[in-house]
Amino acid sequence: MCDSLCSGTLLLEVRLTFLVSHERNVGAIKVMKFLRPFILGILLAGAFYWFTTHNNRVTPPGWVARPTHVELSEAAGPEKLDPEEQNNVEVYHKVIPSVVNITSKTVAYDFFYGPVPQEGQGSGFIIDKQGHILTNYHVVGDSGQVDVTLHNKKTYKAVVIGRDRGHDLAVVQIQAPEVVAAVLGDSASLQVGQKVFAIGNPFGLAGTMTRGIISSLRPIRSPEGAYIEEAIQTDAAINPGNSGGPLLNSHGEVIGINSMIATGGSNQSAGIGFAIPINTAKAVLNDLITLGTVRRPSLGIVSLPIGPELAQEIGLPADYGILVVRTVPGGAADRAGLKGGSQRAYLGATPIMIGGDLIVAIDGESIGDQQDLANSMNKHRAGDTVTITIYRSKRKMDVKVVLGEARERA
Question: Which residues are catalytic?
Fold first, then answer.
């Protein structure tokens, strides 16, 4: 009986041992199946690493040698510049000491009236030995702090001397020794196709010069609302940071102030840039420096634009011009003897006074509406004498008028 029991017990132990061993083998097999992809990946990665680091030596062909000295073909000396290149270099070296980088700082306020510092950057150029610098109004705006960096990398605090928002011009001044002033040219006789250069600090890249031609001369209005008559359109690359810098002719004379670009939404040069004619700036520089503002000229009239239909209806001798409705008492037109309307009439439901002088030209240039009048005034300053061509009844005559200041009404 003991033998049978012992045999049974022994058989049970063997079976249990077999089951335990079998379960262990099954577990090991499952672990191996789980680890097999990782082991395979590690082996492949190791093989790839070994192959790429130990088998990248290329055996050169037999004709490749390693000489002790390498002989190169070098130019005999510095290449001579052709005449056009020489002109480019001469213009750059003549003008670059006068071109400056302008940084303006102002404070705006957020929705919760918290101060938010803002910084602007542009260019400018020195115009005299006293350190006056001409730039764009939109470069300095109403900033309280303006810094100017010269070509020699020295930075100076600047004072805004004058602002002319109407022409997008401003003058700042620095105290610096031995500054070099740019030479101001004449923009009255510019020609389409004429070669020009732009120097400035596009995207903060100081002392950059680009070249192009005058593409057109046309009136434009800036995004800030400044009207620029005979603006110089150029294909010379002008980018953000060029504003306020000089546009130059081939003699290195300033013929314009780079002001704006047509970007097509890309905020960089699209081959269409515009500059304010230097003669426009020269006409107001004296006021900007001596007064801090521009004494804008004015005729001192209230006027009505005339077209063919209205001219025929009220019996005017010309089918264009501006009709003087009334003159401002004591104003330029009043002092010169121009006449306002004396007969009451209606334009639609609007009462007007007719019978006054009809202005058709100023200094020989036709005047068709108030915009033409404004353009003519932009060419002058208060105190200038102009010749105004008028019709008084049927009689055509010229009248000399000394322009007043804009506060009289335009």
Answer: 138, 168, 243
